[in-house]
Amino acid sequence: MAEYDDIRTGRHCIFILHAHLVFVTKYRHQVFGNEHLVRLEEVMRDVCADFEVKLEEFNGESNHVHLLVNFPPKVALSKLVNSLKGVSSRRMRQEFPGLRRHYYRANRLWSASYFAGSVGGAPISVLRQYIEQQYRPA
Prior knowledge:
The protein is an alpha+beta fold. 33% of the residues lie in helices and 27% in strands. The radius of gyration is 18 Å and the shape is elongated. Residues 14-134 form the Transposase IS200-like domain.
């Protein structure tokens, strides 16, 4: 049962929903050092907690970050992403004024775009085959 350790329950559902999120800095500027990434992880964990989302993995480089989140079905990923990017941008600008030189025109740390990919579970081909093979009464 180890592969199902992360099953979560809601009021009327049981779920395992994971997403891989990637955020890129505005203009792909290389702005993050280790201290920035450590603080970004803390901020993003706090935002996730507000949404009842588990931030399972976080890592990044100088111009982007990766997050692996486990989220309940009531959470719209677009709203989570908006909050993660907005709060982290605001906090990082407040706490690290030196970052301002990288986004002097647009008062944003992040690019407007992002990547979100579903993660886990069986491949689509296996799910298709499973559904096709379900019993259908005559």
